[in-house]
User: What shape does this take?
Amino acid sequence: MSERHGRGGGYRRRYYPRDRDDYDDRRHETPDDKLKTVIIKLGEVDPVEEIPSIEEQIRNHLPRNIPLVSEAIRIGVTEQPYKIPFYAALLRLLHNPSEAAAAEESPFGRLVLEDFWKGFQSYVDKVAWRETRLCIHFFAHLTVAKLISVDSMFSLLRSFTAVLDEFGVSHGRAKRAALCAGEGLLIAGTVLKAESPSGVEEIINAIKAYVDTTSQQKWLVCPFSRISSQEVPAQTTVELLDILLNALTTLNDSNFRELENCIPQPYKKQPEIDTAALTPYVLPVVLVPPEIIELDSISADSGEEAPLKQEEWPEFY
Assistant: This one.
């Protein structure tokens, strides 16, 4: 806005305080915003040192905002997956009884976990494979920490191996489902194998049965295949699901003892949960939605099928 000034017809801009200092006009952060930022930024210096401090900030935050804490952890899990073991350790601490809580009240961490599950269910319903897979990583760590029941974790993984048995399942869908089930088993293998060796074998065999059906696609994709043979040479190339299957088979043979050397498990440094005093959370049953048929896969003009997308072919490394 401007005003006329003087007889010469010149104009002078009228300045308001907000024009003089835009820095003072920045958005004011509420206490909820600050807590959410703290949770998301967990581990930017030293996660092991930060976790007790963040737990204290969460407990001291009034009024309690469970959806906020759950959302912040969900964002951290899906956008910063390298922090997943440390978010599991934070949730483990939040399961400790609070001095102010009533004896019959559920632990704060349990309430957060129940709300986190609602977000996971929405990912499954939207067939958001990446977010679904990373949440399963989180649940696998919580199973090792004895916050989630082993039986319900088995049930969750079987929901995804069931996708591999679907009639006419596309390779892209099967690959994502196999990664969800296989990586969840890989992370929680120690406790799952101790509870049910046959259950572990069942999941591995389901993945193997699907991998065995992809030999023809591998032969077409592998650049080193020989026309005279349908065998894909394993010395020079390795397919993604083969990597997963080989890792699971090797770890299963050693009862998953090597996991502690390659996957952080910071929650194991905390006192073990007494399952008699706190029953592990039972994950609800999950049904993976059916595959979405894309109408643009068929050309309206010629009636011929369009070329397969890259994700529908085996991936070699």
Residues 232-236, 295-300 have pLDDT under 50 and may be disordered.
